[in-house]
Amino acid sequence: xxxMHTSSDAEVLTLFKDGAFxxxxxxxxxxxxxxxGLDHVHVPLNVYLENKAExxxxxxxxGLALVPGDDVDALGEDATKFASIVxxxxxxxxxxGYSYARLLRERYxxxxxxxxxxxxxxxxxxxxxxxxxxxxxxxxxATKKALQENDTGAVSIYMQPVxxxxxxxxxxxxxxxxx
Amino acid sequence: MNAITANELISGAVVYLYENGDFGVDLQLAKLFGxxxxxxxxxxxxxxxANPRLVSVExxxxxxxxxxxxxxxxxxxxxxxxxxxxxGFERQTLEGADHVSL
Amino acid sequence: xxxxxxxDAAFVRQRTEQFSHQVKRRxxxxxxxxxxxxxxxxxxxxxxxHAYMLRVAVPYGTLNSKQMRKLAHIARTYxxxxxxxxxRQNIQYNWPxxxxxxxxxxxxxxxxxxxxxxSGNCIRNVTTDQFAxxxxxxxxxxxxxxxIIRQWSSLHPEFSYLPxxxxxxxxxxxxxxxxxxxxxxxLMATQNDAGDIGWRVFVGGGLGRTPMVAKEISDFVAHxxxxxxxxxxxxxxxxxGRRDNKYKARIKILVHETGxxxxxxxVEAEFAEIKDGVLKLPQGELTxxxxxxxxxxxxxxxxxxxxxxxxxxxDSAYARFLQNNLHPHxxxxxxxxxxxxxxxxxxxxxxTDKQMxxxxxxxxxxxxxxxxxxxxxxxVLPHVAMxxxxxxxxxxxxxxxxxxxxxxxxxxxxxxxxDYCALANARSIPVAQAISExxxxxxxxxxxxxxxxxxxxxxCGHHHVGHIGILGVEKKGTELYQITLGGDAxxxxxxxxxxxxxVTPEEVPGALEKLLDRYIAERQSPKxxxxxxxxxxxxxxxxxxxxx
Lengths: 179, 102, 548
Hints:
- By secondary structure, chain A is of the alpha/beta class.
- Chain A has helices spanning about 5-10, 45-50, 50-55, 70-75, 95-105, 125-130, 140-150; strands at about 15, 20, 25-30, 40-45, 60-65, 85-90, 115-120, 135-140, 155-160, 175-179.
- Chain A has a single domain (about 5-150), classed as Rossmann fold, CATH 3.40.50.
- Chain A is about 25% helix and about 20% strand.
- Chain B is about 20% helix and about 30% strand.
């Protein structure tokens, strides 16, 4: 990435990771783009499933793009091959991606970057992180502002575990955890 | 004929667009749009929708009786204009002022 | 009953602060209505016809006196001196102002209550038998499991944006008083061959525009595996439930379109993956929660029977009350007492602040500080010594709460209808009132009769499962009421059948009179209930009675 980032660029940064908006080094695969010589490109699941060998031959980093309706189980343990997976949330009301995230993290042992992208409201940020996302691509101005100011107003007490790591043994009775 | 109605944000009260451009609770003072005033109505509707103090914005169908009383055509709108038909409850009032300025 | 520890208290406090903050941002204009709406809905705040409506959760319908007094206080201070108890065992306030809602939520939090997840496409308040922990026919008290489900489902990060709302009901008794087969998930206590108690799980029930009886997905799930099993169902639903059409988004449609066998396979596969994971319930936790629901310290009672006959002539109203409003208790000398919120000519489910205070006092004095809200929109004192029934009744008389009509035609369910609700097509309350008045002197003659009225196809008034159901629709700008017969919300779950063309509001009481007169004429004995007679006779005589 040779692009210089000036202060005015900060406003257009949409990738939120590790507590800050940062430059995005990834892009989506273009339609009809050749599947060779790719680096830092998110490839749709169906493209991957149909062209595994060709995509695996790339030397650069390949990522995966999931949309609601994709079959995460069809991907399975292959998930671990990717450096970044982005899950699309075309509307905040479509919560399928939360399940995809948990399956990737908890069932298919995916440990790479996991992004949520799309219609992301402030109220949802905490849910994303709890389900295993560690990056958000945000365009909603109110959400961006809340993230920038670390003011999502999230409830930091959890009434249920969603992953084994969330519940240190002996700290809380069974189900619950304070962040 | 149509009138423009909404609910006011803070109280939730039912309000109507008046002739003078304010919003208030009295259907009798509502600005009425004739069939030939579609454009004006649309413009006012747009303006109303943009007002953060007003929610559930709608144009409703009304009639004027011979004595000049404005009647909402649908029962739903009659109930919004007059309050619940049971229990003797008055309609919700606006907080503070008796109208909302656009 | 369950008591908050510091953890629960902090949880609700944070959530209340979060919402106060959101309200502030809305009032300042920072949030648009489109952005604010989902946030307020997740906190039970609707915008109805005349005002906001706040729906407060009463977890599995259980309250103590302090909480009831707080509900009265809120009605008095922030509303118009009354509240409306709902079929989901919750309470709704019809006139709160947005600026007061944070204060109301703070008041609620001070008594371990909230409005979390009383709306939105999430897991709603778990409902149960109003006689839970008291009923003589109970296999197990369902409240500890209901509480465990409540905790698991509260602000669940994976299941807060489901295709549609999700309702779970649970009963510990074989006689189902919680309509579990008409919920997205219904749980019914059962005993397996080894003698262990666990849960039959039903999935895909519901009312609304496409009523469905739930199908059994598992005949036995042990307590320890219940949460993984529920999570498996929710995950399958979250991933595969329809999102293209709001009216086809409930799990009942998924079950119907996919088939229960396929859904069972998917759920079982998911369950196999997670069953021994973090949601497996340790016995210690079940025991810990169950201890909150330990039976109160019942005393040995001298009086173990109530002789109703002795009042039949001298105090017939009291005799009726005894006949209808007492339910058998597991403890000798005790009963559960139903306080009807269906006075003749009243608005079903409404209670004034003064009545709520009086009921709170009664609970404190006579029912070990416990109260219940029933899905039939009444209040219940679950543990009353028989010797105290008269004293309670006298207080109820003073408060206008003595109606002895539990289970009779005037003890009807009715939604708020077009007088309040933004979704309604027709009014429910005036129709309910007219029916109640019409039959005030004949209801004993009709015996057990479940009448349920909805003001639109969303069926909040459960009309599909009324022995007689009434559905208000709008036709050519006027109200019209369809009558259905033969519905049943119990373990014999049945969806009522539409009898024929609708009638006008004025015609409803007369139409019912024709149907009921025909029932009286046709029944084999006064012991044969309306529902039994309908099942034996079918539609024909009733059609003839109504339409000639």
